[in-house]
């Protein structure tokens, strides 16, 4: 197995980038990559190639959007056909309703759709709609859940404060804490108590806590949220930026058979192009025709919607999610066996095609468990994987695409075992 020892062209590119681009990265999360941000030239299918000419099996997948892998022929063809027809119109076009109809058909309970560009924007619109409908201002979120980087929602993301909201960023407006309540994930009765004591416009959650440990909902938890929201007149919002079109064609709504009032979509919906959406009950979403402002120059961009239509068409094929589930299970089982074989305690599991590997703990059932993992070990592991041709995210989350095949999985398991052995040896 070839082992990469250095990345000179990437190191030079990063150093030059830092002279003109703040931090040398276009989003701060990429600065977490070890040993330093790697610069890439192209990707194809499940693989990605850096500027030094090294090729990797890619489990980052653009931090999630590339559900079909890199440069999927159907997506490339759809975008290529649209480009000479125009980049944007500033008015209506046929793809706006055609793709909205695909979304409505895919997700139970979605009657209307609003197009946007990023998850952060879509969450803002969802909360605005909830406030308009209820006439209330507060919302409830859960510890460790990420709903974008705007001031109002970037609260209690990577810290446990026993129910007390906590700011996440320097420069964040402290007034963001005034309108938010925070509860532990999977504690339905605390949610019920908070909603009964206060007027709350919305409860928002990742239906699977993907951003902090890939923690699924406890049995009956989402159904209980639905009941409590109905009892208190609160709008239930599923943030399915990660889970939408990934856990199933109908996302977490289909997988767990619980219908929120609103669902936020992003990442996988357009196969690598910047698209997000809010979907849900017509009486709520149609508030944009009754004075709720929803704006954006690039909303419903025809190129992006061409990519979305092609992506959804591929994901609708028979057996797609069964194969993704099977390969994720093979990876998770292999990772667990390798770590166990080298004497490393770890929690490894998956929900659909999202795998979580958390060394140093035996289970991840809460944000506290996730934060307690040995992330120094995992940082070292991610570098050893990179040396062996496997590109992964920090903090243990792995994404699979339809482009990954059995050979990719076998090669990855071999590289993973060698990488674990190297980290254990270096630590002894």
Protein described:
The protein is an alpha/beta fold and 428 residues long. It is built from 13 helices and 14 strands. The strands form three sheets. It has a seven-stranded mixed beta sheet with strand order 4-10-9-8-7-5-6, sandwiched between helices. The longest helix is centred in the last third of the chain and has 22 residues, at 320-341. The model has no long low-confidence stretch (mean pLDDT 95).
CATH class descriptor of the largest domain: Alpha Beta
Share in helix: 25-40%
What is the CATH fold-level name of the largest domain?
Aspartate Aminotransferase, domain 2
Can you tell me the CATH superfamily of the largest domain? Answer: Type I PLP-dependent aspartate aminotransferase-like (Major domain)
Strand order of the largest sheet: 4-10-9-8-7-5-6
- Overall CATH architecture of the largest domain: 3-Layer(aba) Sandwich
Number of helices: 13
Give the end-to-end Cα distance, rounded to a whole number of Å: 23 Å
- How many domains make up the coordinates? 2
| Net shape | globular
Q: How many β-strand runs? A: 14
| Rounded average pLDDT | 95
Give short descriptive properties of this protein:
single chain; 428 residues; alpha/beta; Aspartate Aminotransferase, domain 1; Aspartate Aminotransferase, domain 2; 2 domains; 7-stranded mixed β-sheet; 4-stranded mixed β-sheet; 13 helices; 14 strands; 37% helix
């Amino acid at each position: 197995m070839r082992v990469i020892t250095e990345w000179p062209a990437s190191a030079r590119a990063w150093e030059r980038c830092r002279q003109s681009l703040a931090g040398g990265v276009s989003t701060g999360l990429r600065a977490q990559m070890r040993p330093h941000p790697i610069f890439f030239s192209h990707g194809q299918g499940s693989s990605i190639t850096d500027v030094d000419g090294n090729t990797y099996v890619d489990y980052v997948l653009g931090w999630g959007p590339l559900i079909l892998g890199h440069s999927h022929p159907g997506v490339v063809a759809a975008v290529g056909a649209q480009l000479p027809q125009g980049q944007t119109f500033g008015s209506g076009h046929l793809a706006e309703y055609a793709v909205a109809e695909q979304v409505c058909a895919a997700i139970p309970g979605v009657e209307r759709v609003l197009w946007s560009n990023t998850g952060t924007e879509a969450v803002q619109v969802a909360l605005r709609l909830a406030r308009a409908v209820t006439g209330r201002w507060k919302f409830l979120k859960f510890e460790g859940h990420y709903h974008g980087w705007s001031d109002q929602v970037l609260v209690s993301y990577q810290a446990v404060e026993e129910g007390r909201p906590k700011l996440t960023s320097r420069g964040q407006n402290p007034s963001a804490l005034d309108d938010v309540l925070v509860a532990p994930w999977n504690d339905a009765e605390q949610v019920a108590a908070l909603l009964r004591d206060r007027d709350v416009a919305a409860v928002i959650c990742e239906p699977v806590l993907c951003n902090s440990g890939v923690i699924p909902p406890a049995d009956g938890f989402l159904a209980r949220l639905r009941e409590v929201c109905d009892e208190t007149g609160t709008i239930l919002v599923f943030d399915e930026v990660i889970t939408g079109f990934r856990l199933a064609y109908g996302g977490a709504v289909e997988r767990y058979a619980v219908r929120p009032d609103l669902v936020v979509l992003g990442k996988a919906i357009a196969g690598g192009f910047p698209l997000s959406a809010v979907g849900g009950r017509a009486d709520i979403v149609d508030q944009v025709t009754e004075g709720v402002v929803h704006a954006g120059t690039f909303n419903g961009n025809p190129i992006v919607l061409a990519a979305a239509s092609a992506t959804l068409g591929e994901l609708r094929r028979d057996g797609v999610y069964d194969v993704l589930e099977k390969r994720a299970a093979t990876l998770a089982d292999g990772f667990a066996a390798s770590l166990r074989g080298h004497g490393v305690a770890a929690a490894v599991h998956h929900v659909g095609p999202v795998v979580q590997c958390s060394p140093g703990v035996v289970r991840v059932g809460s944000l506290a468990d996730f934060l307690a993992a040995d992330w120094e070990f995992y940082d070292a592991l991610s570098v050893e994987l990179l040396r062996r041709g496997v590109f992964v995210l920090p903090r243990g989350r792995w994404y699979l695409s339809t482009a990954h095949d059995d050979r990719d999985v076998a090669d990855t398991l071999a590289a993973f075992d060698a990488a674990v052995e190297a980290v254990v040896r270096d630590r002894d």
